[in-house]
Amino acid sequence: MARAVSVLAALALIGLLAFTAPAAAELKDSIVIKWTYLAQRVVRQLRLTNQLSAKLYGHVGVAQYLAYKQAKGNAAVNADLASAFAAHSVLARTNPNLAPSVLDTPLYEDVVASGVSVAVRDASAALGIKIGIDIATASATDAGLQVSYYRPGYPDSLAKDDVYVFTPEQIGAPRDFLLYPNYANGSTFIYPVSKIPALTAPYLKAPFKFGSADFEAENKVVLEQGGTYAPNRTPYDTDTARFWLGAVSGSGGQGSAGVTGMVQNISIALLPGTYTPEQQAAFFAKLGTAFYDAIVAVWYVKFKVPRWRPITAIQKYYNASWTPLLGTPQHPEYPSAHQGIFGGGWSVLVRELGGKTDYTFTVKSDWPNIADRTYTNLNDAAAEAGNSRIFAGAHWAQANNDAFAIGKAVGEYIYDNIDKLIYGKQAPLKW
């Protein structure tokens, strides 16, 4: 075997974290935080979108939490080591090409650092690997991976206002396709799919229609602040559009941990340093599952009422040459995926902090030409994240607000029901 290096050296190699180091050294050195960072590294290297990273972080969070739960009271198993094997099992099965270069050495370091006997090592490995296999098996049956028969129209065939069509920037290889349309049928981790129709019912008729006063008011803001040329958008706001998206695929960046990783790292900075690894694992299981379950609920609405994007409406009725600051995502506009994910994770973090939001934290930028940002309240950062999608030219405000509300409802449920894991045990939604 290769010579082991220290855990701290491994963390240095991981690098490129989206935020400043956690305030508490206990968090930085724990098995849970180490493998959270490794999951972020996988997301960066594969340049995964926020939707894909949400699912991956859910898998890793659940795997580590289950390892601590199932190792409890079993003297033959080292709980920390079982959680490392569980996280490695999930990540290696999802991304086998990265296992030798990114995942195997950190796992070997954990084995060496544990100092356990061969028998305990093997028992811990057996438990962690089984958990990873169970999660991979559940994922393989996810209806969100099935074929979709939904096909939007094209701008020159637009028949009705308010209806989603491919946008001009989406036509032509390799962008002439939808992103994850069957996530609308996805298998949630904790939030039952049977509850999604009732949760989302108020939003199915909610989007403001073209020509209404509400639509015109919101559209005026996007016209003035969301275009490539936007005289009413400040330089800070221009940076905000990229800052809160992260340098993910399609944003012009070279890969980041995404908004999902951003919320993870804010959490690492603010969680009490007294948390045990098991408490940390419970938290990150809640956070990761809230990201993905919120996406499934948001996607259900997106494809029930597929709404056009700002570029479609604006070019048709207001300014034929208008283009958004950032590329338009390849799925319907309402509600916002970004803010659904954000609302799910945010609600879990705020609940974990007892409802308190007045914390000071610094967020490290993914972009070399955008400065790090410091906030004194979680709500200020959340509001800025929502505005970022308007500055990007991708959304009207209502899509942000309603998606955040959907995500928050999902996150609240998950926070109170983390032990009711139903992943892989549900029938898909009936349409």
From TrEMBL:
Does the keyword field hold Endoplasmic reticulum?
no
- List the InterPro entries: PAP2/HPO_sf, V-haloperoxidase
Family annotation (CDD domains): PAP2_haloperoxidase
Which keywords label this protein? Signal
The residue range of the signal peptide is 1-25
Taxonomic superkingdom: Eukaryota
Keyword flag Cell inner membrane: no
Q: PANTHER family attached here?
A: PEROXIDASE-RELATED, PHOSPHATIDIC ACID PHOSPHATASE TYPE 2_HALOPEROXIDASE DOMAIN-CONTAINING PROTEIN
Q: What is this protein called?
A: Phosphatidic acid phosphatase type 2/haloperoxidase domain-containing protein
Protein source organism: Chlamydomonas reinhardtii (Chlamydomonas smithii)
